[in-house]
Amino acid sequence: MELQERTESIVSLTPAAAEKIRGLMATETDVSVLRVAIEGGCCSGFQYGLGFDRGAQEGDFEFELEGVKVVVDPFSAPYLKGSTVDYLETIQESGFKIDNPNAVASCGCGHSFQVAEGEAPDADAHGCGSGCSH
User: Fold this and answer.
1) Contacts of 3 (CB under 8 A, 6+ apart)
2) pTM value?
3) CATH architecture, domain defined by 2-126
4) pLDDT, position 87
5) From CA 75, how far away is CA 120, in angstroms rounded?
């Protein structure tokens, strides 16, 4: 039970996001999970990565939310802790939006963010959630 509580507190999905994700996954082949990650780069330092994957990688946190299997890699988990993935469809904006309590600043594009100084581990030593080499 403790592990389940711990993984569910990493990220949550709103019902609107879960519905959209389930619909998108139904049109894809050979995918079974939503991968939520952070990646280095973009204007403010980090950016979010949402995508479908065949399954979890070794060390990933795995959990199910609103009928969606979700995986988060161990590098991304601390940055995403307490975040909520939502899906908006309004006259002003449409798409996925992540509300992240760990972000202290974000850029105008809304896709990148910064964490408080001293909060970020050394990206060179750990890599990033997208599997890139930096």
Assistant:
1) none
2) 0.74
3) Sandwich (2.60)
4) 96
5) 10
